[in-house]
UniProtKB/TrEMBL annotation:
It comes from Thermodesulfobacterium geofontis. This is DUF86 domain-containing protein. GO terms for cellular component: toxin-antitoxin complex. The keyword 4Fe-4S does not apply. GO terms for molecular function: hydrolase activity; nucleotide binding; RNA nuclease activity. It holds the Pfam family HepT-like. InterPro entries: HepT-like, HepT_RNase_toxin.
Length: 54
C-alpha cells in the first residue's frame, strides 16, 4: 500500500462509489449496458478505486 493517508484513500474510494451510484441510479441494467458513455464512466470510477488502493 502507498504511503498516502488512509483517510485520503478511503475518501477517494467513497467519492468514486458515490459517482457510480449516481450514474446507475434508477436505470435498468440493459439500458446501462447500451449507454456507452455511462458504461465507460463507471469503468473509469472502478479504475480510480483500483488505483487508490495501490
Amino acid at each position: 500500500m502507498s504511503k498516502r493517508d488512509i483517510k485520503v484513500i478511503l475518501k477517494d474510494i467513497l467519492d468514486e462509489v458515490t459517482k457510480i451510484e449516481k450514474f446507475t441510479k434508477d436505470i435498468h441494467y440493459e439500458i446501462f449496458l447500451n449507454d456507452e458513455m455511462r458504461y465507460y464512466a463507471v469503468i473509469r470510477c472502478l479504475e480510480i478505486i483500483g488505483e487508490a488502493v495501490l
